[in-house]
Amino acid sequence: MFKEIAHTKIYLQILEQIKENIIRGNLKSGDRLPSERQWAEQLGVSRATIREAIRALEMIGLVVCQQGEGNFIAENFEDTLTQPLTIMFWLSNGQLSEVQELR
Q: With contact defined as beta carbons under 8 Å apart, do 72 and 31 qualify?
């Protein structure tokens, strides 16, 4: 009758916040994300958790990481065929594992 309560990983909660901010228009293409340290302090999590979230965002094509420059919301999702599909899938509440399978 009862289901086990799911423990959502922290990096998934960060992904959800990014998604919500994009949907609300608070984040737009080309916007720079805070530095790992700033973001970790702001959210009260470790830098390792922030790195994990950034890697996942980069993998689905939502974030572009530029060495020495920072991390940015991708400006163009049309570089490959799979990126627009993964972003649409993710923004419609698809699971990260399903996005990886799709890619």
A: yes
Decide: 71 and 29 in contact? Cβ < 8 Å: no
DSSP per residue, 5-67: PP---HHHHHHHHHHHHHHHTSS-TTPBPPPHHHHHHHHT--HHHHHHHHHHHHHTTSEEEET
The sign of the torsion formed by the CA atoms of 22, 35, 55, 63 equals positive
pLDDT tens, residue by residue, 26-65:
988 899 999 999 999 999 999 999 999 998 888 877 889 9
Q: Tokens representing 15?
A: 């992904």
Q: How many CB atoms lie within 10 A of CB 28?
A: 10
The model's pTM is 0.67
**Domains annotated on the chain, with CATH:** 10-75 (1.10.10.10)
